[in-house]
Design brief:
- The chain has helices at residues 3-10, 17-29, 48-55, 77-82, 99-102, 118-130, 156-161, 167-173, 187-205, 214-222, 228-242, 250-255, 278-305, 314-327, 360-383, 388-395, 399-408, and strands at residues 36-39, 64-68, 107-111, 132-134, 141-143, 147-152, 176-179, 211-212, 247-248.
- Strand 4 and strand 5 form a beta hairpin.
- The chain folds into three domains: 3-181, Rossmann fold; 184-255, Helicase, Ruva Protein, domain 3 (Orthogonal Bundle); 278-408, no CATH class.
- It has a five-stranded parallel β-sheet with strand order 2-3-6-1-7, with helices on one face.
- Helices cover 48% and strands 8% of the residues.
- The chain is elongated.
Length: 414
Amino acid sequence: MNLQQVKQRFGVIGNAPLLNRALEVAIQVAPTDISVLVTGESGTGKEIIPQVIHHLSSRKHGEYIAVNCGAIPEGTIDSELFGHEKGSFTGAHGSRQGYFEVADGGTIFLDEVAELPMQTQVRLLRVLETGEFIRVGSSKVIKTNVRVVAATNENMQRAISSGKFREDLFYRLSTVPIPLPSLRSRQEDIHLLFRKFASDFADKYRMPALKLTEDAVILLMNYSWPGNIRQLKNLVEQISVIETKREIDAVTFAAYLPAENEKVPAVINEAGPENFSERELMYKFLFDMKKDLSDLKKIVLDLVGQGNDFSLSNDQEAVVNRFYKEANPNYTSSRILPPTSDTPRNSFPKQPEIEDFETHEEVEESLSLEDREKELIKKALEKHRGKRKYAAAELGISERTLYRKIKEYNLIDL
């Protein structure tokens, strides 16, 4: 069976190179009895790989059992996997076969294998090495012929270093490792998946399928999707049911996306041609702060200039006076009062545009900072060959913010 036939049979959507490679490896190892470890973030569809392996193997007529190791309590997981004898523990009213006994001649898929207790890991290692196990409360050795495919979303090297997972079991399980890519690294597949899910839910709920406007597609493609395919599927179902419009624009779509937290950038010590120095990052933050301060000045001057009658504390009054002195160098009053009914409104000091009271040096500085920010973004995009995910991480901002900056500075063609 070739790659496209496998995709059709198991409902796999997408043509990303990393996805294709994972499926090709699964097809190659299926006829063997080699242990396979599938790795990848939560929600990437790791459960598809063991199904492909089982159904393309000589064990396809045997049992296929999927076990979520993280969902079984530690006190009962040995009994679930290996069985128990009557009276072996409280509540054991009779003998019971475990999954390894039931699946003899078939395949067991151990999802979230890193959650196995250490004692269970020892038992599993023995099964993998000798094909033997002992029921809980028994001394009789039982033979089994089971192919094991495991999966995890954890960093296994870190789990080994922390003593959470046995190193020898890891190497025994990962004879053939198959990494599955995250959805954000399959950018060309995201819209395909959206349309597939939209069509499925349209059939399910008997309604027209959702469609995205062009700007919504851009937002869809550039969101980070931390929950991967599972998150995308749930979101499409949610929008399908709630929205009455069948064409979804970017504003509507953005309302359903969880906010991406801004990341605090790490201090970069090397200021080489491909790295950002701490000083360059500070330029960026100063630029943003300066824009916020200018906006604040404009708001304060608007409020006072419109004659709003409000009381100010001494500190607040001092700030307003300072803003007015910047705007009107000849203004000498120690207190700003709104115009009275006897005072013509046009006699109040005219509020200039913010640019009018910015000094020549400040304007140059603003432009310099803006140029610097643009340069930083260009450098990040060039370094990571246009991959916005990595460029955003380098800059310490979200992908959504980076996308907005790219449009603002007209960097689309980079």
